Amino acid sequence: MVTLTQRKAAARADAFARRKIAHEMGQGTAAHLSSVLAGYRGVPTAGYMAMRTEIDPTAAMEEAAAHGVVGVPVIIANGQPLKFRIWEPDCVMVKGDFGAFIPETGDWMEPEILIVPLVAFDRKGGRLGYGGGFYDRTLEMLRAERPTMAIGFAYTGQEAGDLPLEPTDQPLDMIVTETGVLSF
């Protein structure tokens, strides 16, 4: 019998391959993400600094930073929620854990909107991440305090029909791809 852990590993391997193809084809654009965020000007937002073959949200984050506070995730420790340091387009960045760039210094912020990287998504708001649970713990914590919108940002090619999800996996409110927006 195949375990949930094995199903997730297989789904990740398949999705990483599809994401790599989309990335190499240069399909990524943040235009739809910019349009979505324009409707939430001034709302504290957290993005991420793209690594490897992730779709890059930087252009949309730059636009959002012109109207309000934008942060990026900082891994504090394994098994803990993320914290978010304020990011500005010209701030000094250093390599953080797992190779993601983070602001060298700065204040902390709490986002009400999270732009979430992912490996795969489905049309029900399901998200398959890297397996560390950082975003799931973070969203659970933030949503216990206030409404918090999670926007998955991905290539269309990362869509999967049947994701192996657990009760602790936090749902996305929206998926934005290079071709459009799915809301749930």
Helices, by number, come to 4
> What is the SS-derived class?
alpha/beta
- What would CATH call the architecture? 3-Layer(aba) Sandwich
**What's the average pLDDT?**
92
How far apart the termini lie comes to: 33 Å
Give a count of the beta strands, DSSP E runs of length 2 or more.
12
At CATH level 3, the topology is Rossmann fold
Unreliable stretches, pLDDT < 50, 5 or more residues?
none
What is the helical fraction, as a range of percent? 25-40%
Give the topology.
Blueprint: H1 4-24, H2 31-38, E1 45-46, H3 58-65, E2 70-74, E3 83-86, E4 93-95, E5 101-103, E6 108-109, E7 113-116, E8 120-121, E9 127-128, H4 134-145, E10 149-153, E11 174-176, E12 181-183
Parallel strand pairs: 1-2, 1-7, 7-10, 10-11
Antiparallel strand pairs: 2-3, 3-6, 4-5, 8-9, 11-12
